[in-house]
Amino acid sequence: MDVVELSEEIPINHQFTVADLDIEILPIIYEIIRSVEKDPHDSSQKAKESQDTSQKILELQKKLDSARAQIKRLSGIEYSKEEQLQKLEILRKQLKLKRELLLKYRTMCSFDVPKN
Question: How many Å is the maximal CA-CA distance in the chain?
Fold first, then answer.
């Protein structure tokens, strides 16, 4: 999947998330290892296998480049680990406060409004 294709698939207003990543590289790596393990005795077969392996390596390189481009689009990737942890702690405090407020509002006595 090219980066161009990726930008066309995901709308501009959509926030790019980890679930949107397409970085499946293990099958390609497996194919490369399998082709390297093969040891044909015929020189013409060796040349063909070598060419196939080179092609698979180029495919892997393209996949890695695509993965790098996708990862750069993730929200928050521009922050350091410490900044991310600090933001997470702030969000946790906000969540705790909102839960406490919600609980407080639930336990408040409700006023009956007379219906006319």
Answer: 97
pLDDT, position 112: 64
Question: Six-digit token pair at 59?
Answer: 């495919």
pLDDT band at 113 (very low <50, low <70, confident <90, very high): low
Q: What is the DSSP letter of 47?
A: H
Which residues make Cβ contacts (< 8 Å) with residue 44, sequence separation at least 6?
none
Q: How far apart are CA 21 and CA 115, in angstroms?
A: 55
What gap in Å lies between CA 97 and CA 100, rounded to an integer? 5
CB 20: neighbour CB atoms within 10 A? 14
Angle, CA 93 vertex, CA 88 and CA 99 arms, to 5°: 125
CA distances from 9 to 24, 44, 62, 85, 96 (A): 17, 42, 18, 31, 37
| pTM for the predicted model, two decimal places | 0.54
Sign (positive/negative) of CA torsion 83, 85, 87, 93?
A: negative
